[in-house]
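quick one
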Amino acid sequence: MTKPTTIPHVRVAGTSLQRGRQYGTQAAGRVHRSVQEYRQVFAHYAGWDWETVRREAARFEAPIADFRPAYLQEMRGIAEGAGLDLADVLAINVRTEVMYAAMARQAPLAARQVPQPPAECSAFAVVPAPSRPGAALVGQNWDWLLHAAHTVVVLEVRQDEGPDFVTVVEAGLLAKTGMNAAGLGLATNALVTDADVGAPGLPYHVLLRAVLDCETVTDALAVLQAGVRSSSANYLIAHASGSALDIEAAPGDFTRLYPLLPEAGVLLHTNHFLAPQIDPLDLSLWAMPSSAVRLQRLRAALTARDTPPTLDDLRPLLRDHADHPFGICAHPDPRAHRYDQGATIASVVMDLTARHLWYAHGNPCQAPYALFELTPAPKRVPATELALPPGSPSAPPCPGPAPLPRQSTPAPPPAPAAPARRASAAATAARRR
Ligand SMILES: [Zn+2]
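structure w/ zinc ion:
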């Protein structure tokens, strides 16, 4: 495939509607391409034309509005900015619900000729033990349909409603893997069960966004418990403080969440349920059979170690080609239908302690990692707080940005195979516009 060499950087601030408009305007070309590509993909997987997709997607509007109306406003803004209808933006934000529900409906046929979506991701987190030094790390290879290489963006969000965050995401969608200024990081994996029937509820990508609005891992669990989820998914969450939890979710309410704890500070997940008992039937290995070997390779590298893995240990792991083309560094299977072919679209490694996000565009065996630093936004101080009381002898010192709660980080930033592009957020944004 033709591989672009950079991921465009989208930077937004303001109210939810303003942020959405900025997102839609800056990423208009990529949002349109997403809509065009999913028009073909949904026809392939679900047999639906675009009007049917829009009608189905509209059923998710009310659950999103009840949960977080600001997210719907943001989607309205994206649509306005990109010159699309809200129904188009809703449609790509529920692409998981459309595609995996179509898969689940065909599972009883147990025929290999049904569409096989590419497996979506190999993910990990490493957190230090209490009172032990070390950085909290989380990341993943994001594997998806080949067109996503041309629609992915790095979205940097400065917001008043929650912590600022950065996410590597398909243009027009609310969120994917990322981290926020509170020190919380998120990786994620697709899962599918026989309960994934596309019933209206909270969509996967809306919940990803809700997790990135959380300041603690406990907040994130509570958010996932807060409503009825439409689809299965895995949410692998860690925090700079050392807390970490993997939450497997099946469609439904809080009774269908299955939290898993780190072992020796390490969480690993691919594309099938690991909890010993879940209510619905897990179809994940049937839908995404490469998941088993990718988990085996993650375990081989990151468990039974004497010392915690560092960034330098993770980079070669994310380039692992065991079981090629289905490995952790996933490449297209030339035997598959073009809409079933997948590859690693982006590789993301986050140092939550330093608020550093390293990302490679495409297969990390070929692409260098670039660095995004989630620096604190300048504090906006109300004028009343700057007013001097009567009789004050001099002005108070100017309140500068709060320092990040940096802890000792044993490993230096990785030295990528090819020269890395290191840039501040502003410099990155400036260079890529
Ligand atoms: Zn590779």
